[in-house]
Specification:
By secondary structure, this protein is of the alpha+beta class. It has one helix spanning 11-61, and strands at residues 65-68, 83-88, 102-107, 113-117, 125-127, 138-143, 150-155, 161-166, 169-171, 174-176.
Length: 180
């Protein structure tokens, strides 16, 4: 065995190792940010499609359609977590009865924070048989914790949606203005 080989690494080898570790840590940070951005946009796109389909189905079937997050017993929850369902709601009781049909569902990312501000009640959206909402417009805010962007879906009284991208950060379940 060569006695010089037992002393350890050269300075060049240590520097190469540190450079590779630095590059990988920077790359991992950027990769996580890209994944969060993609999750946010995928959730926004899925929710947008669900809203459009609910409005469309209300128009085609000439019946009330409710959009909400359902409990295991089929009642609209107070928060918008888990999955969002669209179903026929003939009696307007905001729950999926045995005679009613759930026709579409979007499963949300577990870390996604989805908040609704607008029409009362705040736990559901109704589309009338002519495709309009029953009260007024409102806004869904979608964000991921520690992500630098927030997506908003604005629904007007006619049931049409538009998207907005904001630079608000999402921290601890609330959207906040970014630090300047």
């Amino acid at each position: 065995m060569n006695p010089k080989a037992a002393y350890g690494l050269s300075i060049a080898e240590i520097l190469y190792t540190l450079a590779i570790i630095s590059i990988l840590s920077i790359g991992a940070t950027h990769t996580q940010a890209m994944l969060n951005k993609q999750r946010l946009y995928d959730s926004q796109s899925s929710l947008h499609l669900l809203i459009r389909r609910a409005r469309h189905d209300a128009l085609i079937s000439r019946t009330r359609i409710t959009l909400c997050a359902l409990t295991e017993t089929g009642i609209c929850k107070q928060d918008w977590t888990g999955s969002i369902s669209a179903f026929t709601d003939h009696n307007g009781n905001r729950q999926l009865d045995l005679t009613e049909l759930e026709f579409s569902r979007v499963d949300l990312h577990p870390n996604l924070i989805l908040a609704w501000k607008g029409m009362k009640p705040t736990n559901s959206i109704h589309f009338s048989p002519v495709g309009v909402t029953f009260v007024s417009n409102g806004t869904f805010t979608l964000c991921l914790p520690q992500h630098k962007e927030t997506v908003k879906l604005v629904i007007n009284k006619q049931g049409r949606t538009r998207s907005e991208l904001t630079t608000q950060a999402c921290k601890d379940g609330k959207t906040t203005q970014p630090d300047n």
